[in-house]
Amino acid sequence: MANCCLISIPLQDGAGRLGCDMGPSAFRAAGLEQALRDLGHTVRDGGTVQPPAMNADASPANPRLKALPGIVAWTRAIADTVAAIPAGTMPVLLGGDHAMAAGSLAGLGRRAGTLGRPLFVLWLDAHSDCHTLASTQSGNLHGVPMAYALGEPGFAGVFPPLTAVLDGANVCMLGIRSVDQAERAFLARSHVTVHDMRAIDEHGIAPLLGAFLERVSAANGLLHVSLDVDFLDPDIAPGVGTTVPGGATFREAHLVMEMLHDSGLVTSLELAELNPFLDERGRTALLLVDLVASLMGRRVLDRPTRSYG
């Protein structure tokens, strides 16, 4: 059984529309803590991350960038919070838009270094989020955390310095289906493993994920799972502001979670981009809680009968 620490990150500045700051409350209202306790896990409430004062001078040349000083402040606060979580405790980060991953990956990299183990990342998302501060056209900074964590140029002197740069060979992106041209160029030269929805259609999700989990196990790695709501098909998860048709189905998503549980490799989890303002009577929040329960040990035969409509 795991010792879980729930940490709320009410961040919405990186998304370009309001509502993601209510995500942590929605996860809690949907019964996440009780679901973990019912599975026998110990749960501690780690409270809510509060960003420090922002640096108003954080302004690189790209005029499109939105809320940059705020995102930099959030990144620093999240990284410090995550890095301070003791070994043997599983951080469960409740967001919040996916800009939170800049801080979580920075903090987890620092934490992995103290434990002397490599950090691996399973990125469940419709988007790769590997724009740099110079390449983003929208200016929405939930599109840059992976580039920052991987040490791409342009973040130095603006974002907090990385104690440990994430190794692209330790990243697997699953469910990708909306990537800009600049991001494609980056991915083509990186060592990141990318399995888009076509690959899932052709090969099935199990062998693709299984091969990555074998690599994590062989390296004795720490596995962080970053789950963006838009990984899922919007027909089953409408509560997100970045919907892309053709996402993971209900059973594909649960299979991913069940395989992750069976592997015993997951050491941290973040849930990103839930926007309750766009949800339908909480159905997306309830689905995410159900998925987390699968990751944490709920078996197929144990699933409750419940209406999401």
SSE inventory with pairings:
Blueprint: E1 3-9, H1 23-29, H2 32-38, E2 42-48, H3 68-83, E3 90-95, H4 100-115, E4 119-124, H5 145-149, E5 171-176, H6 181-189, E6 193-196, H7 197-203, H8 205-218, E7 222-228, H9 250-263, E8 266-272, H10 283-295
Parallel strand pairs: 1-2, 1-3, 3-8, 4-5, 4-7, 5-6, 7-8
Helix pairs in contact: 3-4, 7-8, 8-9, 9-10
Assign a percent range to the helix content. 25-40%
Shape: globular
Number of helices: 10
Strand order of the largest sheet: 2-1-3-8-7-4-5-6
Content-based structural category: alpha/beta
Give the DSSP E fraction (strand runs of 2 or more residues): 15-25%
Alpha carbon gap, first and last residue:
32 Å
> Helix-strand pattern, N to C?
EHHEHEHEHEHEHHEHEH
> Could you report the average pLDDT, rounded to the nearest whole number?
94
Largest sheet: 8 strands, parallel
Unreliable sequence segments: none
Structure in words:
- This protein has a single domain (3-302), classed as Arginase, Chain A.
- The protein is built from ten helices and eight strands.
- The model has no long low-confidence stretch (mean pLDDT 94).
- It has helices at 23-29, 32-38, 68-83, 100-115, 145-149, 181-189, 197-203, 205-218, 250-263, 283-295; strands at 3-9, 42-48, 90-95, 119-124, 171-176, 193-196, 222-228, 266-272.
- The protein is α/β, with parallel strands linked by helices and 309 residues long.
- Helix 7 (197-203) crosses helix 8 (205-218) and helix 8 (205-218) runs parallel beside helix 9.
- Helix 6 links the parallel strand 5 and strand 6.
- An eight-stranded parallel beta sheet has the order 2-1-3-8-7-4-5-6, with helices on both faces.
